[in-house]
Amino acid sequence: DSGVTQTPKHLITATGQRVTLRCSPRSGDLSVYWYQQSLDQGLQFLIQYYNGEERAKGNILERFSAQQFPDLHSELNLSSLELGDSALYFCASSVAGLGVYEQYFGPGTRLTVT
Amino acid sequence: AQTVTQSQPEMSVQEAETVTLSCTYDTSESDYYLFWYKQPPSRQMILVIRQEAYKQQNATENRFSVNFQKAAKSFSLKISDSQLGDAAMYFCAYLYNNNDMRFGAGTRLTVKP
Q1: A30 Cβ neighbours under 8 A, 6+ residues apart
Q2: Which of A50, A54, B35, B110 could form a disulfide with B93 if both were Cys (CB 3.0 to 4.6 A apart)?
């Protein structure tokens, strides 16, 4: 158990819908990262938040957005869902935004878009 | 752009034997970190080992060790005394400046009893 929690574990929804994935980082970690793991794209970094502020963006679509709240939990919002958005979405956390610290991954949310 | 290449989509090893998984990466940076993550069937991403690029000494964690060749941009993972529980997908990852971690495509390791 990494200490990072993600809800829900599974999510099935239809095309065009909007969903919210939730992540709680390990106690004491200020940085939260979101990743997408799909069969065709592999593991891709989406976005990072550090202490409530966006720190870095990766291959995140405009239909996707995220935020980190004062209690440091984070939410990833996916809208206008397409079949290709079906994937495993991971949240990871690390101690700080500066320097390099290993990232600890949550169990993931499996999203299926039908 | 930083890229990570794992040239072995699948590997197999006999229980109690040793196996080496390969990873190469491309970067123009001099200070970065490299990781190996394990993803068992449960899909959980588990950190196996990390290597700081400024350290010449290869990292070791129990049965897991790396061979880090900075000039060659190579970062292989050696698993000694392989166990059935080692069966998983293994991902090599590169991290610079604490964001945008780049992953390889993964190597599926099978352990034969």
Answers
A1: A50, A51, A72, A95, A96, A97
A2: B35
A4 within 8 A of A23, measured Cβ to Cβ: yes
Q: Which tens digit of pLDDT belongs to each residue from A52-70?
A: 999 889 889 999 999 999 9
Q: What is the DSSP string of A63-99?
A: TEEEEE-TTS-EEEEE-S--GGG-EEEEEEEES-SSS
Q: Per residue in B24-60, pLDDT tens?
A: 999 998 888 999 999 999 999 999 999 999 888 999 9
Name B10's bridge partners.
Answer: B108
pLDDT of residue B92: 97
Cα A43-A45-A51 angle, rounded to 5 deg? 140
For A88, the closest of B33, B43, B105 (CB atoms) is B43
